[in-house]
């Protein structure tokens, strides 16, 4: 991991930005949040979205999606690339990507969840990207974009430099169905946010970030897509879980497997995103959500105690599958200041 990551040039208002579906062509099935996200890109950010053949195509092949990724990176009129949403099969797209081509035309890429595959691919080819900021979820949020999310996205897209992550005062967990237009007429319900929880916060760690969605990382490990553990030494590990709501037992087992690989001990600091704790299949109430997050935190601490006993950890950071979401540079610099209880990212 390089201590001097390469940040692609920033976009600026008025620029054209690619809008891609490297995983699931969600816009073809749920046009309302997608069109809302496009409108906010135009009206609030002053950017002109550019679609590609598979952006709205739910059944696009891996080869077709890879071709769109190549086209977006090599298009000289495009200055940034945003994923529409995640999915579950981007792992099949990565073998069709040309890393040298993409590195030669490096641009900021924004996405999370299944886009962990592409974030990692860019990291391995020396390009800083951004975990977060999907069109259908963050830009297409019902009612309005969350102010914390918007501030983070503006800093990552346009400004660069250091940015202190702020703790949310309120969080949204329950979501309306995207097939119902009424969902988008009001803000999602919210509840007071619990503060971040710091573990072994007696030092300052600064390093290059790596990680992503834990379930996707587990798939990548099974497909032998990870590098030797020593290549990650000294970095800041960023982890979060999805709306599939893996149990504490599952979270421990996934982390244990990474620990047995020798991976966890490479990172002196770990950031865990605030766990999503509600889904249509598991509609947990407030008490159950708190219990679920506590169970996941205990599972993570158990794994760290076994495989990275000296690591500093911060839980309930507003990143990943959470609302509000703040953007995390992937392969970029993060400073975790335990005594000051401050997380500073470099966009």
From TrEMBL:
Pfam families, A to Z: Peptidase_S66, Peptidase_S66C
Gene Ontology MF terms: carboxypeptidase activity
Domain LD-carboxypeptidase N-terminal: from-to ranges: 17-132
Keywords: Carboxypeptidase, Hydrolase, Protease
Start and end residues of each LD-carboxypeptidase C-terminal domain: 206-335
Keyword field contains Hydrolase: yes
Keyword 4Fe-4S assigned: no
InterPro entries reported for this sequence: Carboxypeptidase_A_C_sf, Class_I_gatase-like, LdcA_N, Peptidase_S66_N, Peptidase_S66C, S66_fam
Recorded family membership: Belongs to the peptidase S66 family.
Name by which UniProt lists this protein: Putative LD-carboxypeptidase
Organism expressing this protein natively: Kitasatospora cheerisanensis KCTC 2395
